[in-house]
Amino acid sequence: MEEKERNHKLTSASGIPYAEHENSKTVGLRGPILLEDFILHEKLAHFNRERVPERVVHAKGSGAFGKFTVTHDITKYTRAKVFSQIGKETPLFLRFSTVGGENGSADTERDPRGFAIKFYTEDGNWDLVGNNTPVFFIKDPKKFPDFIHTQKRDPRTHTKSATMMWDFWSLNPESLHQVMILMSDRGTPYGYRHMHGFGSHTFSFINAENERFFVKFHFKTVQGIKNFTNSEAAAMKGVDPDFAQRDLVEAIDRGDYPQWALKIQIMTEAEAKTYKWNPFDLTKVWSQKDFPLIDVGILELNRIPNNYFADVEQSAFAPAHVVDGIGYSPDRMLQGRLLSYPDAHRYRIGANFEQLPVNRCPFAVNNYQRDGAMRYDSNGGAAPNYFPNSFDGIYADEKYKEPAQELDSSIAGWFDRNGEGENDHYTQPGDLFRLMTDDEKKATINNIVGAMSGISGEKRTLIINRQLCHFFRADISLGIAIAKGLGVDIESQAMQHAITGN
Ligand code: HEM
């Protein structure tokens, strides 16, 4: 058979050419369908299995391929090959997302945005799985499922619930910093191209001399910050729920490649011991006055995947996947995420998710993992499946060993995350508010008042007062403006009780 002829023939999944794809095989013109039309069964059965479970968070997303180019030398901080010389290019895949909504939810929801990057480096794939915010709502991973439940649907009404959200935030004052960002117009970015990205956590850098530094990653949008107002975002949900996806695809397809400038903050181990803020607390930022931004390079997106499911839905990112020259830190949220993500991937797309093209390391992968569902590569062929062995010459390279890390304490226990020295939840969010322009302040206050107005039920007053108290502590004028917007009498006994605790 001619190759061209074979390639264009309609076939079953097993490659059997067949002639009829529009009518089922029936008994007579008006009779029932024959069981032997296995193509019909194959088609319906495959269709029934088209979905993989959606991500438990960050279900709605958009992705693109691109590259990272080094523009500045940071080799004194890290030996990571991705940063090894000016001009070096590393291919990458980036997936943006909203957090709380389902796969079909609207792109312009008020929500943080995911900013997950997979750098395909010679030393393996480096995943930096961050958000468009430098901080997060919680500082202990044990709280993550509770927090996310409040962002999803109420178990009875199956609708989003402002009551759940504000109940949780008001009971966890460390959330205030992220709540302030979320409630500003940065909570409704104009698509994905006009927002910054952050690694958010503190990571380690390790240089050629085996010295450790702590590092924060910032990706500054070259397109400039642009946000929707609350009402524009709400209207866009109806006009085009896929606004951000469409915006990204159209920009890249017309050659208008979005870029982000990677900058880092560096803290030495000695500085980390004495810094006024816990440098490993994800609800805090490192002041850029204390730790100025250092230029590193440019990230560019330039290709939309040809198939959304293959590359975007099946992409899998894991904060645990760092490469030589980059390491973890004691940030508890990062620690919690190290095991959680690959566990999610195995559930969502299977034990061999690393072999899917978008996730696969394009360089060497040598290990003794074998078999499992959907193992479609050669599965190691005839090579040994155990280590050590006398045959394949594969060895563990000592030069990839990280330097040992000294920790502050040798006492194990349950420490209060918000205990003495860890309980200033107010200075940084207050500073953020005071840095805003008058228009930004006004929008933030309106957005908060609008969101809190949705709190309902018998605990409404309690929740409002408890949260107002946090806003007051961050900034008196913020507290007063929100109270006024909500029609709360701040002289009332309940409010005084909430503010003073007496
Ligand atoms: C302990 C806290 C956290 C836990 C347990 C957690 C867990 C998860 C899980 C299970 C997924 C779905 C993964 C998948 O099915 O592929 C996910 C996705 C994601 N998370 Fe987290 N998360 C946490 C905190 C964070 C933080 C602090 C950030 C950002 C700074 C973040 C950013 C993301 C992003 C961007 C995605 C989507 C990745 C993608 O595009 O596939 N998460 N998270």
TrEMBL record:
This is catalase. The active site is at residues 58, 131. Keywords: Heme, Hydrogen peroxide, Iron, Metal-binding, Oxidoreductase, Peroxidase. Transmembrane segments: none annotated. It catalyses: 2 H2O2 = O2 + 2 H2O. It comes from the Bacteria. One of its GO terms (molecular function) is metal ion binding. GO terms for cellular component: cytoplasm. Belongs to the catalase family. Residues 11-395 form the Catalase core domain. GO terms for biological process: hydrogen peroxide catabolic process; response to hydrogen peroxide. CDD domains: catalase_clade_3. Heme binds at residue 341. SMART domains: Catalase.
